[in-house]
Specification:
The protein has one domain: Arc Repressor Mutant, subunit A, CATH 1.10.10.10. The longest helix has 23 residues. By secondary structure, the chain is mainly alpha-helical. A three-stranded antiparallel sheet has the order 1-3-2. Helix content is 70%, strand content 7%. It contains six helices and three strands; from the N terminus they run ααβααββαα. β2 and β3 form a beta hairpin.
Length: 144
Amino acid sequence: MNSLPKFRASLLQTARLMNDEINNLLLPHQLNSSFWQALYVIHQKGGCTSIEIADYLNVSKPSIAKRMNALIDLELLEQIPTEDKRQKKFVLSPNGKILFKTCSALIDDFESELLQDFAQDDIVVAKNLLNQLSDKLIRSKQGL
């Protein structure tokens, strides 16, 4: 019996459930997981363009533009000049840095609580498997 469809279903169900919990944590801060993903990428890269965010998250550029506008309206992002005037580079505003730190701690606590009953070795194996799957999908998308 082929276990791949069951793996896929389990993976997607787990991702949806985790996403719902993260949305619940972020809701009091006027955020959702889509906004959080953009903030996370900007924080990790120390600032980036919407194209870089779209590429990193593998989503459309128009959907990122909507997120950026909403995050600017919430005063969580600032635009900084770039050499290419057609590009907008985004960084976290002072308010964005504070909120990122707060929400990051909430999500980290949630993740720690979620994983507390699992052996560290199992977590490492699962993370490695997910990273390998992600890498394989990226290579496949790039035609490699």
